[in-house]
Design brief:
By secondary structure, this protein is mainly α. The chain has one domain (8-256). The chain has 13 helices and no strands. It has helices spanning 8-14, 18-22, 26-45, 84-90, 95-106, 111-119, 131-139, 145-157, 171-177, 185-195, 200-210, 227-233, 249-256. The longest helix has 20 residues, at 26-45. The N and C termini lie far apart (47 Å).
Length: 262
């Protein structure tokens, strides 16, 4: 599998150098690495206005911790009643998650798992830190609870091997950060909680398909190929996302217009 190449020196430089990286927590390093990889893969996958996701991104400025929509000088206008597919096209970076979802389909995973893979990393448009928790919250009002639970906990489970499932610790973490890498305590606690939970497999299956999203030899299918799955797995509000009065409507509105003055 031809995963995206990571220049360790360039990656560290993007974070402010070796000293700056040494002062970061292990979880912050991992979040920064995943964000860096997503940005790299979008740069080789997205072409402007193709309708395949990632079409509105132009030379993001560096700003530690912020999501992608806060670092763009120009954003495409959203429809008056935006749908999830509108966000996929106009706000989210999706090459990685489209590959992950396609892999879940190819391996015969349940439809809800395919959908979970399709959205598991998209909240990096809002922020880089704790993207799993943000993702679970963003989708919770609109999906089966197994989907939001799985998205929330995949962030922790990615650090821990599962021999029975054939999931190995990501070699890239050893290569970039060294073999002594240790997740933060709250990540370890979340993993322990997840292992004992009835929905454990919902999240583990996301991690099983996650790494394939970084394979540049695979052309990600257009988001339209997942339209039927989205229609069945996501409860689209008739008012449009951001205007339906849900507990997370403000998060969708922020994605629509991050420059809103008040």
């Amino acid at each position: 599998m031809a995963t995206i190449g990571i220049d360790r020196r360039a990656f560290f430089a993007s974070l402010g150098g070796v000293t700056a990286v040494s002062l970061m927590s292990h979880e912050d390093r991992a979040e920064a690495l995943e964000h860096y990889m997503n940005e790299r893969i979008e740069s080789v996958s997205a072409s402007p206005q193709t309708g395949s996701g990632g079409s509105i991104y132009r030379k993001p400025a560096e700003a530690r911790g912020t999501g992608t929509v806060f670092r763009e000088s120009e954003l495409a206008e959203m429809p008056a009643k935006p749908t999830l597919i509108d966000f996929m096209h106009l706000r989210f970076r999706t090459a990685h998650v489209r590959r992950s979802a396609a892999r879940a389909q190819q391996t015969g995973q349940p439809e809800r798992t395919v959908f979970a893979c399709l959205v598991h990393d998209v909240t990096q448009a809002l922020c880089r830190s704790d993207h799993g928790w943000w993702g679970g919250q963003l989708f919770e009002p609109y999906v089966d609870e197994r989907i939001s639970w799985g998205v929330r906990h995949h962030q922790a489970l990615r650090f821990f091997p599962d021999v029975e499932m054939g999931y190995e610790y990501p070699e890239m973490y050893n290569r970039i950060f060294g073999v002594d890498y240790e997740p933060d305590e709250y990540i370890r606690a979340a993993h322990e909680d997840a292992k004992a939970h009835k929905y454990y497999m919902e999240s583990r299956l996301i991690t099983m398909n996650d790494e394939y999203g970084f394979d540049r030899d695979i052309e990600p299918p257009p988001i339209e190929e997942f339209a039927d799955i989205i229609g069945r797995q996501f409860r689209q509000p008739k008012e449009g996302l951001g205007y339906d009065g849900s507990p997370v409507a403000h998060m969708w509105r922020t994605l629509i217009n991050p420059n809103r003055p008040l």
